[in-house]
Amino acid sequence: MVSSSLPLEAPTPAHICPFDQACSYLEQAVRELQLDQGLLAILSNPRKVVTVSIPVKLDSGEVQVLAGHRVQHCDVLGPYKGGLRYHPAVTLREVSALAMLMTWKCALLGIPFGGAKGGIALDPTDYSIGELERITRRYTSELIKDIGPEVDIPAPDMGTSAREMAWIMDTYSVNVGHAVPGVVTGKPISIGGSRGRELATGRGVMIIVREALAERGESLVGARVVIQGFGNVGSAAALLLHQAGAKILAVSTGSGGIFAEAGLDIPALKVYAAANRKLIALSGAKSITNAELLTLPCDVLIPAALENQITHENVNQIKASIVAEAANGPVTLEADQALLARGVTVLPDILTNAGGVVVSYLEWVQGLSYVFWDEERVNREMAALMVQAYRHVIQESKVRQVSLRMAAYTLGVGRIAQALTDRGLYP
After folding, report:
1. Catalytic residue among 105, 117, 187, 247
2. pTM for the complete prediction?
3. pLDDT at 282
4. In angstroms, how far is CA 288 from the centroid of its own chain?
5. How far apart are the first and last CA of the chain?
6. How far apart are CA 246 and CA 252, in angstroms?
7. Mind listing the pLDDT tens digit for each residue in 3-27?
């Protein structure tokens, strides 16, 4: 395996390193494409890694210093693009892996962006709104020369939302002396955000699941679906799948989940979860653990939480016929191979959860042109790109006789490799 030459901290022994896993898939794609090893060396390393110190005065008067990361993997197709996540488990290796995945994702979808990712290791629930604002604004000011609408465009991710994007836009705009709506995506509509962005990633998941079922001659109507994670992506996917006629058997948060054989009332559950930040077993439902949820019999299992959820330890207990990766890297390399051997269809993350970056691209386009679309047009444009990418992956899989994941990687990596070859190496 080609490893990064960058001084990225090592993972703990019990943790499957997302960066090493991303590099492993890259190596497989390079072998399948028969690319030059020099290209592998280039693509295995982020182009730029920035770590900044974020001193913040807490409401108590105490000063705390946090570390913020921004990894810019490859900009051969256009400006860097990627989310900013606030989560206690954030590491530089994780952020580097996610930046690499974003590169392949954008290339696969035909979007003129390169991959980036940012993160701060914190639990946002431990901080007040004022403290989070000061953290976000200081992080932005430290990266002021490394972001911009033609350089690197942050977006919401785990633990962040339109609120944080508004703070980033304002901080950047104040520093350059004029409003710059294109510096971030996923911001409020009032300051140049796009309609349809909030549900975009979940809508993309729904579209890919729908297409995969249709490929089997099946329908969303009556499909039994289990979703791990009820955050922005999981709850949006649950709602849209429910509206399309699917039966959502179970959903969960980090503290556990709920299950109902007859299906859950997703609209009511979404309202309750928004008000209480937790799930309860509503009428006809019962509480289950996240481990139990993953092994429920169902047609479609959607891991929409963290990475490394389906591993060698539980893969043989998975009873779904389709696993749709709404999270980044929820299935480990070993588990992926086991599922493939059993005939389980795995819809890869760089395709399945790409709806968010597609609508981020559409928001960026709207912001640059100062012409804004209605939600129907946004959803239509996004659906067209998602369906087109899915069909390309299916075709690539058949032609090369490889898994859907490897087909997605060969398409994405192949397009980046071609662009690097055409542009040449400077100097």
Report:
1. 117
2. 0.92
3. 66
4. 26
5. 27
6. 17
7. 334 444 443 334 578 899 999 999 9
